[in-house]
Amino acid sequence: MTQTLDGVPFRLGEPFDMSFMGRYGTVFSVFDDQDSGNICFGVKNDHGRYFVKYAGAPTLRAACSPETAVQNLRAALPAYRDLSHESLIRLVHDEPVGGGHAALFEWSDGVCMGRMYPNARKQFVEMPINTRVRVFSEILRFHAHVHEKGYVAVDFYDGSILYDFEEKKTMLCDYVKKPFHNEMGRLWGSSLFMSPEEFLLGAEIDEVTNVYTMGATAFALFANFQRAREAWPLSDALFRVIEKAVSDDRALRQPSILHLMAEWQTALGDTFVMQ
User: Do 147 and 164 reside in the same domain of the chain?
Assistant: First the structure.
């Protein structure tokens, strides 16, 4: 069904009172096509513009109950404080509200790479190849920081990546504290980015798992998810680095994000002038 806030329509699985959003400002944008159980809003008030992530409403495509979505959001919030970084969206405030939980972040004018937003994705993947190489390098550097701080990326996919064209800045999200074990059998997320252990009940989700995620991210950035050499626009050496990262056999992947970064940089050499 469709509801509106401040004239902006959004979809939910069933009616839900979201009038409490008025406390954060005037809604100017809605992101309702998520499988996480969250619905997100762009709001503006006298202090600026913000991104509000809310769990507790019956979203249309949720892969979990509203109660589980609330638990997941609350569990994820400490990461935004512990991982403070220029590439991580900044958490301003969070609170229980409306029977669920809301988290208020600084707004970014980034374009989302996610396939659920085809116009934005088209703009993202049509960036010059040099720019996409820089974006991928920034993603790698941030994930090295993630593991240094004792966290791991879970449910990281193209919808987790934003690029601000004006600031020339990459923004990211979705991290949990280590150690983290697969207690679901199939974890949340896009299967295009998920390693075999993310489908295996009891498996540890660790840095080697995220090496796979980074390899899948490279194929998404440069080859529209295709893993065939003929779809890859960069060198054979770079293809081999990324093909190794997405090995189904964990023992064949690079053992850390830093190792992947080093192999990528060596294969990259002086081929690209960053833009």
Answer: yes
Round to whole Å and give the CA distance between 257 and 55: 31
> Is 251 a domain residue?
yes
Total domains present in the chain: 2
What is the domain range of residue 124? 111-268
Last residue within a domain, chosen from 106, 126, 144: 106
Q: How far apart are CA 119 and CA 264, in angstroms?
A: 30
Q: DSSP for 97-121?
A: ETTEEEEEEE---PEE--TTSHHHH
Say whether both 86 and 147 belong to one domain. no
Mean pLDDT of 77-95: 92
Residue 273 has pLDDT above 60, yes or no: no
Query: Are the CB atoms for 17 and 58 separated by under 8 Å?
Result: no
Q: Which of 228, 238, 232, 224 is nearest to 124 (CA)?
A: 224
Q: How far apart are CA 21 and CA 66, in angstroms?
A: 17
pLDDT class for 275, splitting at 50, 70, 90?
Answer: very low
Residue 161 has pLDDT above 50, yes or no: yes
DSSP 138-150: HHHHHHHHHHHTT
Give residue for tokens 């400490």. 78
